[in-house]
Amino acid sequence: MTLGLYLLKLMASRIGAALFALVGVLQILDLLDVSTDILDRNLGAGGVAYYALLRLPRLIEQSAPLAVLAGSLFAFGKLAGDSAVTAMRSTGISAYRITMMAIPTALTLALAQLAIGTVIAPRTDAILSEWWQASTPPDAAKSVDPVTFRVGDEIVVAVPRDPDGTSLEQVTIYKRDAAGRLIQRTNAQAAVYEEGRWRLVEPRFETLGDDNVVESGAQRMDWPANLTPGDVRALAMGETTVTAAEASRALAGGLSTRPRTFYDTQLQRSWAAPVACLVMMLLAAPAALANFRGGGVTLTVQCLAAGLLFLVFDGAFTALGENGAAPAVLAAWAAPSIFAALGVTALLYLEG
Questions:
Q1: 95-115 and 328-351 are packed helices; what angle lies between their axes, rounded to 10 degrees?
Q2: What is the pLDDT of residue 264?
Q3: pLDDT at 319
Q4: Mean pLDDT for the chain overall
Q5: Residue 208 pairs with which residues in a beta bridge?
Q6: Which residues are CB-contacts of 140 (< 8 A; sequence separation ≥ 6)?
Q7: 62: closest CA among 23, 112, 7, 103?
Q8: Residue 126 φ then ψ, to 5°
Q9: CA distance to 99, 201, 306, 310, per residue, from 302 (Å)
Q10: pLDDT at residue 293 in the model
Q11: Are the CB atoms for 175 and 153 separated by under 8 Å?
Q12: CB under 8 Å to 296, separation ≥6 — which residues?
């Protein structure tokens, strides 16, 4: 077995074990929260298993960076504890080369995380949402509150009472001009999705002129809104997860419930999030040079603390970007860039 293959096997086994453990813990905590609801709906053990299966992609995506950090620390710690790194360095193999031979494992998980976040998880989330909505027992006494959202330049207030997402009730549409000034208010009994388009039922219009208000009405009319039944279902469910595709649609005039800066940041985050796996590998790499007979445990703890601190900074920068306090590119990429540079710097210092 070649050295590169040995390192890949060691790294993959440790990262895989860490990922399995983290996903298992998150899965158990998630099931503890919803198992009672699933069983109350008479879905049985099969329903619990089906829910766990649909939640699995999102849990893997969330656990991947921490799994790389923990698995890399275990793998590099084993190499250091067995004096394997000392033996490799005596033959002229530097710590940089050891790190580069281990990088493909983190890169593979980063690509898997990207595929899960952009392709797999959005589909399983949609299936889970529809399944959960379909199994919800009807409650005639339950009131449905109006929701407010934006479609293009229009602000809409409506009641998403239909579980299929094909109708809205008590619709009020505020139309604005390019400067953001209100120019028309439309009230309709309902908006119905038919034949691939939205139609307003008995709309009444109030158009604001320079010094008057012109009122008019119609029986039915098309509403050219960039809105899908899936968007309405997401509004009714109160879902907070935003995929890259949804962020792109919101920026292009589709459904949005938050400021534009939020969707700009989420779009950048969809590409920056998988890079965290590579950053975690770089932050854990100095542990390969630990001397467990003279403070090696301290170095390992420092690597672990740096990885956890990266998650804190990454979340803080993301929050700043979502609220418009920082540019979206800076909010998404600042923490990965800073901590990747920190990991490389530490490795350069220790290697001498």
A1: 160
A2: 94
A3: 94
A4: 87
A5: 213
A6: none
A7: 23
A8: -65, -40
A9: 18, 63, 6, 12
A10: 67
A11: yes
A12: 80, 81, 290
Dist CA 300 CA 271 (whole Å): 29
Find residue 20's DSSP bridge partners: none
Q: Give the list of residues 6+ apart from residue 343 with CB closer than 8 angstroms, or none.
A: 279, 282, 283, 284, 285, 286, 306
Query: Residue 82 carries which side chain, given as an amino acid letter?
Result: D
Six-digit token string for 45: 């053990």
- Identify the burial level of 228 via C-beta atoms within 10 angstroms of its C-beta, where 0-12 means exposed, 13-18 middle and 19 or more buried: middle
**Per-residue pLDDT tens over the stretch 93-141:** 888 888 888 999 999 999 999 999 999 998 998 898 888 877 777 655 5
- Percent of the chain topping pLDDT 70: 95
pLDDT at 112: 95
Q: Where are the beta strands (DSSP E) in 195-313?
A: 197-201, 204-208, 213-217, 220-223, 255-256
Residue with tokens 């909505």: 133
- Model pLDDT, residue 80: 82
| CA–CA dist 70, 84 (Å, integer) | 19
Our measurement of the distance from residue 184's CA atom to the centroid of its chain's CA atoms, rounded to an integer in Å, reads 36
pLDDT number for residue 110: 95
Give buried/exposed letters for 236-271 (b at 16+ CB in 10 A, else e). bbeeeebbbebbebbeeebbbbbeebbbbbbbbbbe
The string of pLDDT tens digits covering residues 265-286 is 999 999 999 999 999 999 999 9
**Dist CA 189 CA 13 (whole Å):** 60
The span from the first CA to the last CA of the chain, in angstroms, equals 29
**CA distance linking residue 65 with residue 194, whole number of Å:** 44
CA distances from 264 to 238, 271, 334 (A): 21, 12, 15
